[in-house]
Amino acid sequence: MLRKLAGELEEMLPGDDPALERVFPPAYPDDPLANEEYEHLVRDDLVAQRVEAVRTFRRTLDAQRISEDELVAWMSSINDIRLVLGTKLEVTEETNFRDLDEDAPDAYHHAIYHYLGWLEEQIVEALAATLEHPGPGRGKKRER
Hints:
Helix content: 55-70%
Distance between the termini: 30 Å
Structural class: mainly alpha
Order of helices and strands: HHHH
Number of domains: 1
Largest sheet: none
Oligomer: single chain
């Protein structure tokens, strides 16, 4: 499932699919001209960064261990997949997943969305464990 979703995202990223709306939100939502100029300047770089992250994600899916940089690529890719899926499912801050009907046509996709959120949380926790512990004794790595 992850490989399939990552492949779909990689194909989608260079295009202008409306589902990418949350992946590439407008920098200047109230100024279409400024936003168009911004997109002209940075869009290709943003797409290239995201495509590289997805390729790293796909390449390391079967790895027993991955580096911190690879884990950051996982986080980026999973977040982008969730943003696309959330856009397609019309997920908002008010969406209550507890009220979703298991027999609804999009229940499977909601379950994937929920799983990806859990996976992203695990990645954030793993990355946070590598940060320096704030406060006294600064500079020491957290013990695992």
